[in-house]
Write a structure and sequence with these properties.
An 8-stranded mixed beta sheet has the order 6-5-4-3-2-1-14-15. A 7-stranded mixed beta sheet has the order 7-8-9-10-11-12-13. By secondary structure, it is an alpha/beta fold. The chain has a single domain, classed as Metallo-beta-lactamase, Chain A (4-Layer Sandwich), CATH 3.60.15.10. Helix 7 links the parallel strand 12 and strand 13. It contains 7 helices and 15 strands. 18% of the residues lie in helices and 27% in strands.
Length: 282
């Protein structure tokens, strides 16, 4: 089974560049230092059989979907309900329409679903009579593996300050964002994973996120072949940090794609150069 993870965004909650910041990373011309809020797309299978599972719905989802050429998904997985991971939920209307107006299948922890219903009540209210919104079938999970669009998904519980966050494993690939602690029981669930995308906010310790050094240690504990870091802030300049990391570890960046192919090989696909038009002069 082919499993690919595409970085829709790799940045921290403020995005990079950060509003009002004059640091050299925020002003860097290197496109790998420009980071939308963290999210990935799992692509499982290939061709007409491909299944697409979106992990988190950031405030940047419109641009992320346009960049990825994404017009429909087969499921939405929610890690947790901090604003940078779910406040793009209303913008899923485009994917709902692209999917033939069939309800989107949404999977979350019970407490995450309840929070989404409080924040976006109208999206979950079947009596709300307005056609210009997305509609959902909702599902909750706890510790056991569940099936989304025919794909077995294993939740990886992690700690983020005083809340729990769900990481996700599909086949030999796994994604974990927003954590300062990965319990031993969750390290065990990562055994056999070959490619891991993992939170690594900055060099210095942080109360609710992994530092770069701690993230490397967790990847070593899990025994993964490749780790790519995400949820990166402006303390980490892409080229400088990569020059310091071991060959099996790298900073992720927007639009990068990494896959474990059906034949077992690991394939990394870099994005094509941006074709964005030049700014219009007034």
């Amino acid at each position: 089974m082919r499993v690919e993870m595409e970085f829709l965004g790799s940045g921290t909650s403020s995005g990079i560049p950060t509003i009002g910041c004059d640091c050299w990373v925020c002003h860097s011309p290197n496109p790998r230092n420009k980071r939308l809020r963290s999210s990935i797309l799992f692509r499982v299978g290939a061709g007409d059989d491909e299944r697409r599972l979106l992990v988190d719905v950031t405030p940047d989802i419109r641009m992320q979907a346009l960049r990825a050429g994404l017009t429909s998904v087969h499921g939405v997985l929610i890690t947790h309900t901090h604003a940078d991971h779910c406040h793009g939920l209303d913008d899923l209307r485009g994917l709902y329409w692209g999917g033939g107006r069939e309800r989107l299948e949404l999977f979350a922890y019970p407490e995450s679903l309840e929070q989404l219903k409080r924040t976006f009540g109208y999206l979950f209210d079947d009596e709300y009579d307005y056609k210009g919104i997305a509609r959902f079938n909702t599902h909750v999970f706890e510790h056991e593996a569940f099936v989304a669009a025919g794909i077995t998904v294993t939740p990886i519980p992690v700690v983020h300050g005083n809340m729990r966050v769900a990481g996700f494993r599909i086949g030999d690939c796994a994604y974990i964002t927003d954590t300062n602690e990965v319990p031993e029981s969750s390290i065990a669930r990562l055994k056999g994973v070959r490619v891991l995308i993992l939170d690594a906010l900055r060099r210095a310790p942080h109360p609710t996120h992994l530092s770069l050094g701690k993230a490397l240690h967790i990847a070593e504990q899990a025994g993964v072949e490749r780790v790519l870091f995400t949820h990166i802030n402006h303390d980490l300049e892409h080229e400088q940090i990569n020059a310091e990391l071991p060959t099996w570890a790298r900073l992720g960046y927007d639009r990068l794609r990494v896959a474990v192919e059906a034949d077992g090989s690991i394939r990394v696909t870099e994005p094509a150069p941006s074709k964005e038009p030049p700014p219009v002069a007034f």
